C-alpha cells in the first residue's frame, strides 16, 4: 500500500524515538513543548511539507508526515528541541509509507506503549491531530488515518482485556507506593507540579488510599487551586516548598520544567523520604541520593508492572492485532478507492460527453425526441457502468494499476 493523497515526489514517513532505545535523559532532550509544537507546524508549512502530526510524551517523540526525504522531518525535530542529529541517529527509527502506517496503528492502540495496553497515548494522538488541523497541516490521507487509528483503539479497549490491571504510569506509581510505604493513609504526601501524570497519580492515590494529607504546590498557584478544588487538596505557596518537603513522607514531582527543580539543597529532613520523579526531562537531581534517608525513584522504574498483569495482557495481543488488521483493511480499501477515483470521474465525464453528442444527433433528426427521458435513462446507465468498473478495481487490487491504464487507453482519458 502506497499513500496516494500526496504531493508528487513525497512519501509518508514516521520518524522518532522511544523508551525502547532512548533513555530518560535522551528522551528529555527531544521532548517538545507546546510552543515548539506550534513552531514546528508553522515552519513545516513554510517549507512545503504537506500534512504533519507531532506527538511528544514522556515515553516517545514522533513526527508523522509527508516529505521528499525523512531528513526534512528529522531537521525540524532537532531545530526545535535540545537534541542533535547525531544523538537522534543513535536511537531513532524511520518508517516509510506502509510501515509508517502500521507503526502509527501500533502506537495509537497501545501495542507499542512501555506499559502494554496503555491507552493514554491515543489522547496525545488526538491532541496532535487537532493542533495540526488548526495550522491546516492535515490532508485527507492523514485525517482518515488518524480517525481509523482512533476507531481501532476504541475497539481494542472495548473488545479485549489488554488494558486490565495497571493501565498507566500513574497507576504503576500508586502500586509502587502501596507496596513500599506502610500506613500510607497516615503519611504526608506532597505533589509538586500539575503535569498530567502527577494529576493522575494524585487521583489514583485518593481513589486507592484513604489519605487526606495531600498538599499541592505549583509555580502558578491558580493552576494548583483549580486542581486542588477538584480533589479537595491543600494548596501551599511555591515559596514554602522547602518547609513542605520537610513535613513530607512522599514527594511526587510532576512539573513541566526543562531543568531540575528539586535538589539536595531543598531537603532538610532526617525522616525517610520517598521521591517519585514523574517528569520528562528529569526534575530531581541525582545528588538527593547522597542523603541516607532519601529514596529516589524515576519514571522508567515505575513503568514496570507485575509479571502476571503483563502476561495476561500479552495473551490479548493476537486479538488486538486481528482488530487492527480488520480496520487497516478498511483503510487500505478506502485508499485504493481514492487511487482510482480520478479515473472513474474522468470515465463518467467521457461517457457523458459521448451521451450528449448522441442526444444532440437524435434531436436534429427527430423534433419529437424526448431529451429529458433520454438523459435520465443514460445517466442511470453511466452510473451502473462506472459502478461496475469501480467494483472490479476494488476487488482486483493487485491488478489495479494495469486496469486503470487499460481504461484510460480505451476511453482516451489522459487529456480529460
What does this structure look like?
The chain is an alpha/beta fold. Strand 5, helix 9 and strand 6 form a beta-alpha-beta unit. The model has no long low-confidence stretch (mean pLDDT 85). Helix content is 53%, strand content 12%. It folds into three domains: 11-165, Glutamyl-tRNA reductase, N-terminal domain (Beta Polymerase, domain 2); 169-304, 3-Layer(aba) Sandwich (Rossmann fold), CATH 3.40.50.720; 334-410, no CATH class. Helix 6 (120-134) runs antiparallel to helix 7 (140-159). Strands 7-6-5-8-9-10 form a six-stranded parallel beta sheet, with helices on both faces. Strands 2-3-1-4 form a four-stranded antiparallel beta sheet, sandwiched between helices. The protein is elongated and about 105 Å long. The protein has helices at 24-29, 34-46, 71-79, 85-91, 98-108, 120-134, 140-159, 169-180, 196-208, 221-231, 241-247, 299-302, 307-314, 317-365, 371-395, 400-410; strands spanning 11-18, 50-56, 60-67, 93-96, 189-192, 214-217, 234-235, 250-253, 273-277, 294-298.
Secondary-structure element series? EHHEEHHEHHHHEHEHEHEEEHHHHH
Mind telling me the CATH superfamily name of the largest domain?
Glutamyl-tRNA reductase, N-terminal domain
- Domain unit count: 3
**Reported CATH architecture of the largest domain:** 2-Layer Sandwich
- Helix percentage: 40-55%
Please compute the radius of gyration using only Cα atoms: 29 Å
Amino acid at each position: 500500500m502506497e499513500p496516494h493523497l500526496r504531493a508528487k515526489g513525497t512519501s509518508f514517513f514516521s520518524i522518532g524515538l522511544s523508551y525502547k532505545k532512548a533513555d530518560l535523559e535522551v528522551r528529555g532532550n527531544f521532548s517538545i513543548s507546546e510552543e515548539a509544537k506550534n513552531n514546528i507546524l508553522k515552519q513545516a508549512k513554510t517549507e512545503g511539507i504537506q500534512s504533519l502530526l507531532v506527538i511528544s510524551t514522556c515515553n516517545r517523540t514522533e513526527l508523522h508526515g509527508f516529505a521528499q526525504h525523512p531528513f526534512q522531518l528529522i531537521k525540524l525535530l532537532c531545530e526545535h528541541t535540545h537534541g542533535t542529529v547525531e544523538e537522534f541517529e543513535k536511537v531513532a527509527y524511520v518508517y516509510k509509507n506502509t510501515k509508517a502506517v502500521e507503526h502509527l496503528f501500533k502506537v495509537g492502540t497501545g501495542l507499542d506503549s512501555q506499559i502494554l495496553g496503555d491507552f493514554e497515548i491515543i489522547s496525545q494522538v488526538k491532541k496532535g491531530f487537532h493542533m495540526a488541523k488548526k495550522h491546516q497541516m492535515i490532508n485527507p490521507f492523514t485525517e482518515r488515518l488518524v480517525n481509523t487509528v482512533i476507531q481501532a483503539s476504541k475497539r481494542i479497549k472495548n473488545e479485549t482485556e489488554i488494558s486490565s490491571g495497571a493501565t498507566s504510569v500513574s497507576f504503576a506509581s500508586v502500586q509502587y507506593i502501596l507496596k513500599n510505604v506502610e500506613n500510607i493513609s497516615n503519611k504526608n504526601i506532597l505533589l509538586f507540579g500539575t503535569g498530567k501524570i502527577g494529576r493522575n497519580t494524585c487521583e489514583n492515590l485518593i481513589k486507592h488510599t484513604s489519605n487526606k494529607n495531600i498538599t499541592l504546590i505549583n509555580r502558578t498557584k491558580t493552576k494548583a487551586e483549580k486542581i486542588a478544588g477538584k480533589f479537595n487538596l491543600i494548596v501551599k505557596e511555591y515559596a514554602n516548598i522547602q518547609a513542605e518537603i520537610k513535613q513530607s513522607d512522599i514527594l511526587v514531582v510532576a512539573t513541566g520544567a526543562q531543568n531540575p527543580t528539586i535538589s539536595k539543597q531543598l531537603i532538610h529532613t532526617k525522616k525517610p523520604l520517598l521521591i517519585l520523579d514523574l517528569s520528562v526531562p528529569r526534575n530531581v537531581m541525582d545528588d538527593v541520593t547522597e542523603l541516607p534517608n532519601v529514596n529516589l525513584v524515576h519514571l522508567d522504574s515505575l513503568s514496570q508492572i507485575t509479571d502476571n498483569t503483563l502476561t495476561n495482557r500479552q495473551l490479548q495481543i493476537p486479538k488486538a492485532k486481528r482488530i487492527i488488521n480488520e480496520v487497516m483493511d478498511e483503510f487500505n480499501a478506502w485508499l485504493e478507492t481514492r487511487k482510482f477515483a480520478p479515473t472513474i470521474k474522468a470515465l463518467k465525464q467521457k461517457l457523458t460527453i459521448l451521451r450528449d453528442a448522441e442526444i444532440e444527433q437524435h434531436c436534429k433528426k427527430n423534433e419529437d425526441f424526448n431529451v429529458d427521458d433520454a438523459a435520465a435513462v443514460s445517466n442511470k446507465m453511466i452510473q451502473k457502468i462506472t459502478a461496475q468498473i469501480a467494483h472490479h478495481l476494488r476487488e482486483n487490487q493487485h491488478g489495479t494499476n494495469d486496469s486503470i491504464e487499460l481504461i484510460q487507453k480505451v476511453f482516451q482519458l489522459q487529456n480529460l
